[in-house]
């Protein structure tokens, strides 16, 4: 169970999925198991179905055969690609049936607002505030994107607004490298409240 979100990130990259479809797959997976007992269904089958469904939602369709082969290689690194035998077709049918189950459980609400576009906007703004040397010597941007990607291992995407997650990962990335936003000490309010007025960071 605990390995399934990692399966998304690994399988999604190998399938050539963009970051938003992978994020949607993770959100579908987490939302499904918020509604259903964790022990009721095979998490890896739900993971594969979530990838398949996310590809449709985000208009980056994937072939079930590719999902099966990549997932099989993730779970069994030394194995050969599955033959097109009865086992393969049973697994393919299971993915399709599980997709329908996921849609029913989630009441067909499988579109999500992700933090990615907000983080991109915030990064560009902060980059313009900082001097070029401060920005270039600290991998704030790379770290913020990595933190955002890792946040999808858990259910943060369901618990918090997209803007708040984007601000949080950027704030953490800045803190990690000791980068201060110019004139922050003299400002009437923290820099992040320019973007999200209702955000409080201790």
TrEMBL record:
One Pfam match, by short name? Cyclin_N
Gene Ontology BP annotations: regulation of transcription by RNA polymerase II
The Cyclin-like domain sits at 7-104
What UniProt keywords apply to this chain's record, in alphabetical order? Answer: Cyclin
InterPro entries in the record, alphabetically?
Cyclin-like_dom, Cyclin-like_sf, Cyclin-Q_first_cyclin_box, Cyclin-Q_second_cyclin_box, Cyclin/Ssn8, Cyclin_N
MF (Gene Ontology): cyclin-dependent protein serine/threonine kinase regulator activity
Question: Per the similarity annotation, which family is this?
Answer: Belongs to the cyclin family. Cyclin-like FAM58 subfamily.
Q: Which PANTHER family match?
A: CYCLIN (PTHR10026)
Return the protein name: Cyclin-Q
Species source reads Lipotes vexillifer
């Amino acid at each position: 169970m605990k390995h399934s979100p990692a399966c998304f990130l690994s399988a999604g990259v190998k399938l050539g999925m963009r970051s938003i479809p992978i994020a949607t797959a993770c959100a579908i997976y987490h939302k499904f198991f918020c509604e259903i007992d964790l022990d009721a269904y095979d998490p890896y089958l739900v993971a594969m179905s979530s990838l398949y469904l996310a590809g449709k939602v985000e208009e980056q369709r994937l072939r079930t055969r590719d999902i099966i082969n990549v997932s099989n290689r993730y779970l069994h690194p030394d194995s050969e690609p599955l033959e097109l035998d009865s086992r393969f077709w049973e697994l393919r049918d299971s993915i399709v049936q599980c997709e329908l189950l996921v849609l029913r459980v989630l009441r067909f609400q499988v579109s999500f607002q992700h933090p990615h576009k907000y983080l991109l906007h915030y990064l560009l703004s902060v980059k313009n505030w900082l001097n070029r040397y401060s920005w270039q010597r600290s991998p704030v941007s790379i770290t913020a994107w990595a933190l955002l990607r890792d946040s999808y291992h858990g259910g943060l995407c369901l618990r918090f607004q997209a803007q708040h997650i984007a601000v949080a990962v950027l704030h953490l990335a800045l803190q990690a490298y000791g980068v201060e936003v110019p004139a922050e000490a003299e400002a009437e309010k923290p820099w992040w409240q320019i973007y999200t007025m209702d955000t409080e960071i201790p």
